[in-house]
Amino acid sequence: MSDTDLPGGPPEIARTLIEALPFMRRYQGAVMVIKYGGHAMGDETVARDFARDVVLLKQVGINPVVVHGGGPQIKAMLGRLKIESSFVDGLRVTDAATVEVVEMVLAGKINKEIVTAIQTAGGKAIGICGKDGGLIEAVKLKRTKRDPDSLIEEAVDLGFVGDPQRINTSLLDTLRGTDFIPVIAPIGVGADGQTYNINADTAAGAIAGALRARKLMMLTDVRGVMDATRNFVATLTDTRARAWIADGTISGGMIPKIETCLGAVERGVDAAVILDGRVPHAILLELFTEHGFGTQILRG
Ligand SMILES: Nc1ncnc2c1ncn2[C@@H]1O[C@H](COP(=O)(O)OP(=O)(O)O)[C@@H](O)[C@H]1O
Ligand SMILES: CC(=O)N[C@@H](CCC(=O)OP(=O)(O)O)C(=O)O
């Protein structure tokens, strides 16, 4: 039997593994923060593949840290409980009843589902939220909006939406030398014990910055960042990103995502990438191929 009888068979698999080798060597021991968005985790097969990818990273000596969202799942639970919800610039306005549901869904249900998926894929995972070990110290997020008529900056009250002030990495540092993969729900805690709902992108960026991660990967439900004509862009600079936010090319949930990536590279993360988590093995394609897979956010 010749190689041509084996389309996508052993020779191609071997080539793929060989191509991955230099990247595996380059990333040996590196911390990779993976933001796993609520939209990216919808499908059961994709969720299983995600877990397998994370286990593979750990197996080859990389240190994945998973920070997850769960916006659609929070929406569904709030709907069942008949609690109304609204968003300002991609952030959920969070009152006392809402923050309770957010914590239940994120730190309870979703966090443990991801832990179970990783364990089922043969890895070891430990699920925590920003309260555990005082991981994410937060304060109430301050937001202002300019009134288009008077041009005066007005305060917008988002309720219990948190702004991470300090990331206590000691628990994550301890886990780094072990087999355990941390899975983090974006719930923060105030000095007074108040629970805060933190946008998962923001939490992932703060954690990636504090850990000086090699890469921050933001898994979402689009190919990457799209320009005004809806074409995929492979790289996006700071200046262009800000212009596109101002003219509406980038909107909604993509705004905190881009702001987070910009903040992370400023804080010393080598690369921040937005990629399609619905594509099977998106993480492996990003890390172990020459051209990567998503939109890379750059300074300048
Ligand atoms: N320029 C843009 N390029 C890509 N997506 C965009 C853009 N502007 C807005 N979006 C929206 O941002 C969404 C991703 O943000 P979000 O829904 O918060 O995802 P996640 O739940 O994964 O965090 C996309 O589904 C898309 O509708
Ligand atoms: C303040 C704020 O908006 N918090 C988010 C937290 C979850 C999240 O960010 O989930 P995704 O990554 O799936 O969008 C929320 O309540 O939906």
State the CATH topology.
Carbamate kinase
Molecular shape = globular
Content of β-strand: 25-35%
Name the CATH homologous superfamily: Acetylglutamate kinase-like
Structural class: alpha/beta
Largest sheet: 8 strands, mixed
CATH architecture: 3-Layer(aba) Sandwich
- Count of all domains: 1
User: Which ions and ligands are bound to the chains?
Assistant: adenosine-5'-diphosphate, N-acetyl-L-glutamyl 5-phosphate
Uncertain residue ranges? none
CATH class: Alpha Beta
State the helix count: 9
In helices, the fraction of residues equals 25-40%
State the order of secondary-structure elements, H for helix, E for strand. Answer: HEHEHEEHEEEEEHEEEHEEEEHHEHE
Mean pLDDT: 93
Question: From the alpha-carbon coordinates, what is the Rg to the nearest angstrom?
Answer: 20 Å
Head-to-tail CA distance between termini:
54 Å
* Widest β-sheet, arrangement of strands: 5-10-2-1-13-17-18-16
Number of strands: 18
